[in-house]
Amino acid sequence: MSGLARLLSLLDLFTPDMPVWPSDALIEHMACPASTGYRYIKALHEAGFLTRVANGSYALGPRILDLDRTHRVSDPIYVAGTPVIRRLAQKTGFSTLLCELFGDSVVCVQRQLNSENLENLFDRGQSRPLFTGAAAKAILAWLPTHQLKSLFAKHREVIQRAALGDDWESFRNTLRDIRAMGYVRTVSEFHTGIAAIGAPLFNRQRDVVGSLVLAVSTLDLDEPAFAALAPEVVAASQTVTQALAEPHISDVLAARAL
After folding, report:
1. What would the mean pLDDT of 146-150 be, rounded to a whole number?
2. Which of 183, 105, 86, 238 lies closest to 97, judged by CA?
3. What is the pLDDT, as a whole number, of residue 253?
4. How far apart are CA 112 and CA 136, in angstroms?
5. 5-14 — which CB contacts under 8 Å span 24+ positions?
6. Mean pLDDT, range 46-61, rounded to an integer
7. In angstroms, rounded to a whole number, what is the distance separating the alpha carbons of residues 67 and 125?
8. How many CB atoms lie within 10 A of CB 67?
9. Strands 208-217 and 194-202: what pairing?
């Protein structure tokens, strides 16, 4: 692992369950000499990514908030998708999500909640695996074949547990069926008690980059009526995709940077 990779890996340690880390634990994680570890921690602290707390421990610093604000005004999916999911939530009465592909996971970038039952649905910045739930499968099914083969080789047992296929052929066929529908619908899959419909988002090059999701608590679920909203979800995702393909999105973002 390179020095830069070691330094950046420290940020992945901070989670809601473990928000504070002592410096010696951070250095142990990096598996480097103590002097090097303290230098990395100092660099992150001076850049605002870490802040000191009691007893020589560290938490995430205020620079994270600054970057979050920058992301909200510059991320194409957030910019193009936010008004779309708000309109969809208002029209249907259900909650909506915008999600983005990140490595082997999917991250929520925006949400519009219409139910207290979904408060813990998917917070902005929260990630989840790429193999369960409508938000993930609506991305997974449209990934290129070479990437899917790599994912299957790397996560075969997880894919089998998610009932996506016991071998490469069945995995590929499951995803082919999702693509044929144009969307995916799940019930109590990633979160017990939540039904969702997800559709993919594409960039100008037609690479899948995220998903748009409509979600409802199963306590409020009229399944036939909810399933009938799939065309609305697909239409909304296509609206966002069209916006992502427009040159003016890039122009707007560039203008904001001036």
Report:
1. 95
2. 86
3. 45
4. 18
5. 6/30, 6/31, 6/32, 6/40, 7/40, 7/43, 7/44, 10/40, 10/41, 10/44, 10/50, 11/44, 11/49, 11/60, 14/59, 14/60
6. 90
7. 12
8. 12
9. antiparallel
